[in-house]
């Protein structure tokens, strides 16, 4: 394994920072090295937020912003714009919270056919299980299905340790439903 770099784009209150931390915790449980950290502008609910996660087999992990990610995760539909894909490596992954199918998203934001694209309606899943537009756990299901970086059971274990009781169960159900309903379009399918 080399280093996998993930850049998360969301809005304050949607859980982008928590999603990055949960993914990193799961990677560590599975014996990898990982680091997650946020980048905040205006710290208020609804303001754009960036978070970063690095997963690697190297214990020396830089704590610098990720400019050329392997994966871009978009938690908020209003951020489904080309500018948020900047720097994404050719052959990288775009994982988006949208009811659109991957090919529809590619057309909508005029993406080149050089990325793998996954979509999931994380908002509907979050509203169903969490009764709030906190899409982080739903989007984690999509990240796991798309990247296979870690096992879904590991993410569920981390969530249940972090959120106890009914909240942990609801988050686990959101992850499972998102995992099952994520549509993945690999690069060769897009060409």
From TrEMBL:
This is pyruvate synthase. SUPFAM superfamilies: Pyruvate-ferredoxin oxidoreductase, PFOR, domain III. Residues 12-180 form the Pyruvate/ketoisovalerate oxidoreductase catalytic domain. PANTHER family: PYRUVATE SYNTHASE SUBUNIT PORC. It catalyses: 2 oxidized [2Fe-2S]-[ferredoxin] + pyruvate + CoA = 2 reduced [2Fe-2S]-[ferredoxin] + acetyl-CoA + CO2 + H(+). Keywords: Oxidoreductase, Pyruvate. NCBIfam families: PorC_KorC (TIGR02175). One of its GO terms (molecular function) is pyruvate synthase activity. It is an enzyme of class 1 (oxidoreductase). InterPro entries: Oxidoreductase_gamma_subunit, PorC_KorC, Pyrv/ketoisovalerate_OxRed_cat, Pyrv_flavodox_OxRed_cen. Its EC number is 1.2.7.1.
């Amino acid at each position: 394994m080399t280093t996998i770099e993930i850049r998360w784009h969301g809005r304050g209150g949607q859980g982008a920072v928590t999603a990055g931390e949960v993914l990193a915790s799961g990677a560590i449980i599975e014996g990898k090295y990982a680091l997650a950290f946020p980048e905040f502008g205006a710290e208020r609910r609804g303001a754009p937020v960036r978070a970063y996660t690095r997963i690697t087999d190297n214990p020396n992990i830089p704590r610098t912003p990720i400019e050329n990610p392997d994966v871009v995760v978009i938690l908020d539909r209003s951020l489904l714009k080309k500018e948020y894909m900047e720097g994404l490596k050719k052959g990288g992954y775009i994982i988006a919270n949208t009811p659109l199918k991957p090919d529809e998203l590619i057309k909508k934001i005029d993406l080149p056919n050089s990325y793998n694209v996954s979509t999931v309606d994380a908002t509907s899943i979050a509203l169903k299980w969490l009764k709030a537009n906190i899409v982080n756990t739903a989007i984690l299901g999509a990240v796991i299905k798309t990247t296979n970086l870690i096992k879904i059971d590991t993410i569920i274990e981390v969530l249940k340790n972090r959120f106890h009781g009914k909240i942990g169960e609801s988050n686990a159900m959101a992850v499972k439903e998102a995992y099952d309903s994520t549509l993945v379009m690999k690069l060769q399918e897009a060409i």
